[in-house]
Specification:
The chain has 136 residues and is mainly β. The protein has a single domain, classed as Jelly Rolls (Sandwich). 14% of the residues lie in helices and 48% in strands. It is built from one helix and eight strands; from the N terminus they run αββββββββ. Strand 4 (77-84) and strand 5 form a beta hairpin. It is globular and about 40 Å long. Keywords: Signal. Residues 1-20 form the signal peptide.
Amino acid sequence: MTAVTPKQIAASALTLLLMAADTMTVATRPSSTRRGNTLEQVEAYASSLGAGETAVHTLAFEKGREYHLEAACADGCSVDMQLFSSSGRELDRHVGAAGTPEVAIITSNTGSYRAEVKMVACRVQPCAYTLAVFAR
């Protein structure tokens, strides 16, 4: 196994974050809201996890907005993601499926929400991941 330095992990995470920002800020999706179809990136996180580890991100969402969350990780790893209300009720999930995990919600309340990113598989421990939050 090849040793990976914290600097290499940070560089990989930054690369993933920039790739996610470049591909999503221009994306459009159908929307049931009156704010239009353009997604705007409102938050971004980059970190690393070992296989089986979970990161918890607390997010402040506004009532009536549509939020899309996307997680990504470096080559050789895979992640799952779940979104929960402040009371702990699961609102959406992308678990056990191939591809880039994505969850979405149109909020009914302003408040704290919780996104959990789980590193399912990781070839070189720890693996860098990003979480991007988009809204309209």
